[in-house]
What does this fold into?
Amino acid sequence: MMRSRRWARFGLARAATLGALCHLPAASAAPEYHSIDMAASAQTIQLTGHDLTVDQVAAVARHGAKVALTPEARQHSADLYGLLLEGAAEGISIYRFNRGAGAQREIVTFSGDPLSPENKPRLAARALETFENGPNNGFGPEVADEDIVRATMVVRANAVTYAAVSPPVSQMLIDLLNNDITPLMQSRGSPSEGDLQQMHNIAGAMVGKGEVYYHGVRMAAADALAKAGLKPVVPFGADDDAIDVTNAFSTGQAALLVADGRKALDWADLIYAMDLDGMNSSITPLGRPVQDARPFKWLNWDAARVLDMIRGSYLFEADPARIIQDPESLRASSIRQGSAWKAWAELSDTVTIQMNSSDNNPAVRSLAPQDSLELSSPQFMRYYV
It folds into this structure.
């Protein structure tokens, strides 16, 4: 009897739990979307592939600045695309083009000229299928901040010039940004070394599949392209590899973090200066003689910066009421904040390098065997076009 009552109570509890679950919001419900402002829409940033800055990423991602590839970057990208096609025609093994990927890296997917009547339609269909399947990749929750997706796209648009991408696909990245078409992106993807799944979401929008935000309004990608006067792109070659083999999703977010971090540190220094002034503090720890005793670059820099902020204040005058040593929160703030600036600078440098270099596999470069000792070796010459 006791056992039956226990199970009866369990059954009621289970029924109540299931009933409560029935009233939970659907897991796929769209989150509140945070659109950008267009304050910088009159500005155009030239993408060269090697000098994109964090400030420029923020201008595009958050304030609608437009982008354009320089003629040199466009030509460089086209040259690499030509190398890809010629390499396959010469029978050179190319990862994820005429060979498979991952465990299938030694599997031949096609032989000969990719532009031959036999290969061209098959490769075009393969590329289009991959792009069309893009919206089915990744897992939620959806990215609710438009600036994150736009940061991803501008980072990729800049560095894709190092990949063997077809000109129409490279241009579509530019067109999506400049027409305020932001693909719906999932926040979770593959656990591998690249942000593959999130980039597939962007690829889907390029061919009119999935959903996007057009001027902040959610709609079908095909409808948004039509409203903007754009035609769905026709991918070819290794365009899927050129778009998705990248860390642009992570790098774009890191760039925005660097931009925000600098603002936070600027405010921290200003608040520190106000604290010193308001507390009638001793400013001797910030002086050059004290700082020279501990020559740490960023600590010295921050001390000098804060000292300059309060220059001309009454703190430089004698005051018998001023104590010889302030609480640690004031006398050591430049040390803490200088250390934070050092960490910020290291992150900024790393992100800037990442934004302006190739993270693509395969790497396609315009080089000659004599450019480096190892390039003339038999192993490297296997991949020379």
About this structure: The radius of gyration is 28 Å. The first helix runs from residue 2 to 21. Residues 131 and 203 are 5 Å apart (CA to CA).
